[in-house]
Design brief:
Strand order of the largest sheet: 1-2-4-3-5-6-7-8
Radius of gyration: 24 Å
Number of strands: 8
Largest sheet: 8 strands, mixed
GO biological process, one term: proteolysis
Number of helices: 17
Enzyme class: hydrolase
Shape: globular
Protein name: Lysosomal Pro-X carboxypeptidase
Catalytic activity: Cleavage of a -Pro-|-Xaa bond to release a C-terminal amino acid
Order of helices and strands: HHHEEEHHEHHEHEHHHHHHHHEEH
Strand content: 5-15%
Distance between the termini: 90 Å
GO molecular function: dipeptidyl-peptidase activity; serine-type carboxypeptidase activity
Length: 505
């Protein structure tokens, strides 16, 4: 086993060992369940998304000029913590808007994710190489790429650029406009929890929204059933016969051998409920897994009898989980390791979470349906030192990007769906005339960025119209300034020419 493989193995083992208490300490955005992120990205190909794949300085980007008119706008997607093709396939708003704006589309991959590995196979060997994995370095990459595109694509030098992103990518889009206002004229930051940091948002808010989603779609009975599950799983997991029963009821691919294995089941269940809240879309979708419309409603149909106990309760929960992992009915068994640290994308994000992206999460088991887990920064720091050999910077995001003190900036749309637990850390009120909050009452995680659909609720239709209104406004303002500068240059030239013919006598 080489150094890189050994390092990854240590991370995985330690992450699993600490999972019983710390499995929710590191914030995590929605990700495919497949261990092979690239396979998942290619599995669900977007029929609208025709692009060319290019690279620049070891970083990959996707480009589409099908609808672009020279000097027309560039819609620039600020890549997330994963393979960029997956995000391109799931950001339909850009594809739907390309012809309307005559826009070029760029999807830029974030360094250290997908195929953009700055040190090749060594990129994940140790913090020595991973230390260059930061949001500010990624933003600098995007800035350099835009300069490159404008310098090498005929007709692009005068194109206005709008940054667009969802989730972590949405955070980057907003920060990109803040840090590089001379490069991007505006930003659409969808489901971007830029306030989900220490001292800015209560750590318990996230899991309370997940619980509210289940209560909204399944009532108190559904929430009560989930709450009862944790104690039942622990009780069964404490004995050999109980672990055997858990393995059988949940149809696990690998039988549970130890209590540590049972902790993985807790983590697996918890992440399943969270993911369902994030992708509770109004139509069938396969953003993470192939799911029916309003999947929480379907899940909660299995959890309406909150008097169930023991085997019957666990079977009801297993049937509910099956909606998420086996909606197609083809899965023969469930793999609880799907949510473990299983890919470079996971490792990269966990490294960022242990350095700059310190986003406190906690639950109390009373006002939410999850087991009590307290946020303790010191314990979190110890875990990061143990697993990733780094020390987190508690307030770095606020110090770097401003936190709540961003009123001096301009031209950013912050959109949030109220079904999305990440809306707790989002900007949900207007800060100024050009720092605008768009609320989507029936929206889950960046629903507005997805392709338009006949089943879209009216709130997301309104949100997209508002977003396009502001994007059109930014483009118009940019072009008007460009024309004004051109007139000024011409007037200066004319004045200079006339001056040459003025006699001093």
């Amino acid at each position: 086993m080489g150094a890189a493989e050994m390092y990854r193995a240590v991370i995985l083992i330690l992450a699993v060992l600490s999972m019983s208490e710390a499995f929710r300490l590191r914030a995590r955005f929605p990700r495919p369940q497949s261990k092979d992120f690239r396979h998942h990205a290619k599995r669900y190909v977007c029929r609208y998304c025709n692009y060319e794949t290019r690279s620049f300085r070891q970083k990959r980007y996707l480009i589409s000029t099908k609808n672009w008119e020279k000097s027309g706008p560039i819609l620039f997607y600020t890549g997330n913590e994963g393979d960029i093709t997956w995000f391109a396939n799931n950001t339909g708003l850009m594809w739907d808007s390309a012809s309307e704006f005559g826009a070029m589309l760029i999807f830029a991959e974030h360094r250290y994710y997908g195929e953009s590995l700055p040190f090749g196979n060594k990129s994940y060997e140790s913090p020595k190489y991973l230390g260059y994995l930061t949001s500010e370095q990624a933003l600098a990459d995007f800035a350099v790429l835009i300069y490159h595109l404008k310098a090498t694509i005929p007709g692009a030098s005068e194109s206005p650029v709008i940054a667009i992103g969802g989730s972590y990518g949405g955070m980057l889009a907003s920060w990109f406009r803040m840090k590089y206002p001379h490069i991007v004229v505006g930003a659409l930051a969808a489901s971007a929890p830029i306030l989900q940091f220490s001292g800015m948002t209560p750590c318990e808010s996230f899991y309370r929204i997940v619980t509210q989603d289940f209560k909204l779609d399944g009532g108190e009975a559904c929430v009560n059933s989930v709450m009862k599950t944790w104690k039942t799983v622990k009780t069964y997991g404490s004995t050999v016969s109980g672990r055997k029963k858990l393995s059988s009821i949940f149809k696990l691919c690998t039988p549970l051998k130890t209590q540590s294995d049972v902790s993985k089941v807790e983590y697996w269940l918890s992440e399943t409920w969270v993911n369902l809240a994030m992708v509770d879309y109004p139509y069938p979708a396969n953003f993470l897994e192939p799911l029916p419309a309003w999947p929480i409603k379907v899940v909660c149909k299995h959890l309406q009898d909150d008097t169930l106990k023991g085997d019957k309760l666990l079977q009801a929960v297993a049937d509910a989980v099956g909606v998420y992992y086996n909606n197609s009915g083809q899965a023969k068994c469930f793999n609880t390791s799907q949510q473990a640290v299983s890919s470079l994308g996971d490792e990269g994000w966990y490294f960022q979470a242990c350095t700059e992206m310190v986003m406190p999460l906690c639950s109390d088991g009373v006002n939410d349906m999850f087991p009590e887990t307290k946020w303790d920064f010191n314990e979190f720091a110890k875990e990061c030192q143990r697993t990733s050999k780094v020390t987190p910077l508690k307030h770095w995001a606020e110090e770097m990007y401003g936190g709540k003190k961003i009123d001096s900036h301009s031209n950013i749309i912050f959109s949030n769906g109220l079904l999305d637990p990440w809306s707790a850390g989002g900007v949900t009120k207007n800060i100024s005339d050009s720092l605008v909050a768009v609320i989507i009452e029936e929206g889950a995680h960046h629903l507005d960025l997805r392709h338009k659909n006949p089943l879209d609720p009216s709130s997301v239709v309104r949100a997209r119209n508002t977003e396009k209104f502001y994007m059109a406004k930014w483009i118009k303002e940019f072009n008007e300034k460009k024309k004004k500068k051109l007139r000024l240059r011409n007037s200066h030239k004319t004045a200079k020419t006339k001056l040459n013919y003025v006699s001093i006598f």
